[in-house]
Sequence to fold (928 residues):
Amino acid sequence: MSEAQSPQDSGEEDATEALYALRPGVVKAICEALADGRAMRVRRLVLPLHYTDVADLLERLNSDERRQVVELVRGRFNPEVLTELDQAVREEVVEYLGPEGLAAAVTELASDDAVELIDELDDAVQQQVLEAIPAEERVILEEALAFPEDSAGRLMQRELVAVPSFWTVGETIDHLRDSTDLPNEFYDIYVVDPKHQPVGTIRLSRLLRTRRPVRVRDIMEPDMKVIPAAIDQEEVAQIFRQHDLVSAPVADEGGRLVGAITIDDVVDVIDEEHEEDLMRLGGVKEDDLYRAAIATTRARFAWLLVNLATAILASVVIAMFEGTIEQIVALAVLMPIVASMGGNAGTQTLTVAVRALAMKELTPTNALRIVGKEVIVGGFNGILFAALTGMVAAVWFQSPPLGLVMAAAMVFNMIVAGLAGTLIPLGLERLRIDPAVASSVFLTTVTDVVGFFAFLGLAALFLL
Amino acid sequence: MSEAQSPQDSGEEDATEALYALRPGVVKAICEALADGRAMRVRRLVLPLHYTDVADLLERLNSDERRQVVELVRGRFNPEVLTELDQAVREEVVEYLGPEGLAAAVTELASDDAVELIDELDDAVQQQVLEAIPAEERVILEEALAFPEDSAGRLMQRELVAVPSFWTVGETIDHLRDSTDLPNEFYDIYVVDPKHQPVGTIRLSRLLRTRRPVRVRDIMEPDMKVIPAAIDQEEVAQIFRQHDLVSAPVADEGGRLVGAITIDDVVDVIDEEHEEDLMRLGGVKEDDLYRAAIATTRARFAWLLVNLATAILASVVIAMFEGTIEQIVALAVLMPIVASMGGNAGTQTLTVAVRALAMKELTPTNALRIVGKEVIVGGFNGILFAALTGMVAAVWFQSPPLGLVMAAAMVFNMIVAGLAGTLIPLGLERLRIDPAVASSVFLTTVTDVVGFFAFLGLAALFLL
Fold:
């Protein structure tokens, strides 16, 4: 029974909290024990924790506490902890463990987790760690490292259960009972032909419910999705999502079964890809919550510099109309409204388009229809906000012509926003640039420049 | 073997495409057959498709084609298709099926999918459908509907395998072979005490590898997470993620086992929650790709209206300095740079903070540290961009004092951006408002108002 539901819990809320996180009381107790230098107590508090909770703990401590905890539990450190840590924290912990500690950890992990860990190391450390690993394990890791980064080959685990199609259910079950080198967890077994190519899968639930004399080829599901080892993990996630898979066999170029991908690995990919999309749209390279201030400053600087260039471009457009603004200063007051409404309308369109591209819902087949729709939506909202802002401008500055100029610029900019919000991500996708990275800066450049130019230009033409 | 790898495929790229999507050629052939009124050919093309592909197909067709396809395959419509459709498209298909067709579909689905489908219906239609369902099924659905929306109780499926702890592995396997009402797929079996409270779980892989005379209580995993039926699905996703679960038992208030949640349901929740975060940050209520233009316009109008109010607020600040701008028109040219850099820096901070809150990584324990870090990052980047933009301003308008005013306003606004980018989402979270919904509009209000006020105010003080 879960700890969270046991009677020694202090309260209802605390119980729910404990279901998805480490209890704050535990963290506090460990911090105090560390501060008092009570090593035994720290060990007694940390060692019974589930590995996911240890990871949580390490993320919440500061660097110094983190080092102390790793030193104290070194001999009994569960390597699974490493797979759960945020990258910045993991790099620290890996350093504290040293090459030997790391080699021991890698040997215990499933091949997919081990590869991920090793791949992040500097070349020199990577070599040291690989040398400290038994040869048999090392070969498997080196084979996996030969697959491109973020490919299905990296994501898969080598450990799997494969049986020939002429076996019976009974033989299969006996094989499972007698084997010692099976994966810790598996949900399907794979049926292979003599060339070791996958010809079918069997759910364990199906296997369990079938009588012993039945042949596996009679209960296998032949219509399965075989994942090529070379494809990108994002595509793997899409295949799992699209076909509601729980696990899938992976084949090399020759079609031979080389590994299996299970949904828990895919959940990590989905989380990762989500985070990437969100962060890129927000102009951040990665989730830098645990990075130091200097590293964070450096990482964000580049994006802000690009934005500065586009802001200066917009200023150049404004500068073209300095004379007009000098005569009608109300233009300076109102111009940010035109630009900002265009930017917001464009961001709405862009968000939907970027998401739809990532989910493969926006395709060449329906692109034209979606662009058309967004232009119409931009036009509709443009007309509504033209009426609103035109009236505000006319009343505020007692000038109906100024209101008309405002309204015209608004409709124009909102239509452009609908167009840019779809065409920019579609264009970047076609150029094989991730639309999430670069779309928003292009978009605001377009809506600022067009907004200022349309508003100030119309004003120069009709109001002077 | 997967269709995607079979020899009749036209090419390599097409093969990969077919792994995660319906091939465009199939869609085209179906559209042509529909246009020519060749009903038999449409049926022959649609019926062999996997249900996920049928869903894909329906999403890509226009409304009229969609209706035709549903009519043509009505008798052999796979209800699983409904669970895969985008909501807007699903509402349409549900209408074409009618209450009887829907009742038939609901009866075939697993209880969690059936509940989701029924829940979306208008009250009147819901009543009609429920009445057309056999009493036994209806009771289960009505019980599930009694759980709050988006709760674990709605997410779970009722169908599960539970055995008493004194059973042996052999008895359990015989039970599995003899039962007819088991779930289609399951990964764990649950061990219960006489009060039907869960006391342990057993992975199927463990069960398969254990000899028949062993008692289940000796191989069960007693340290499991039991999910209370009342908690929110977002918390369920967090628990699965936090503890790397594949399935988990769900208990009612009395601690009795009432259902099971499997990871494939959780993947849908993760996708849903992520979409919500992304869409809300982008100022869109929901992914409206498949909605009509008028409905989309209406849905986006409200957000743009809120933004208009904040844009006007910024304009009011500018209007306070009309006299200053009239004398130094360069201020109108440069002021958008100060506001825009603050907005971008703030958005970076905000994105990280909103994500960290959603992932429960930003907690009361570390909030102060994160706010402090963001202020420092804002200060560092503020100084860098103050130097850059100050020089640009001084050179462009040949006025070192103008450059100094620009620099001072820039540092100030970037620090405010770091502060606002963390405090706004933290504050909203404390008020139990989703930070993703409202944060960005508050943030840009702050960075615009502060940016314009600091820049124009300092200019009025020192340059006139």
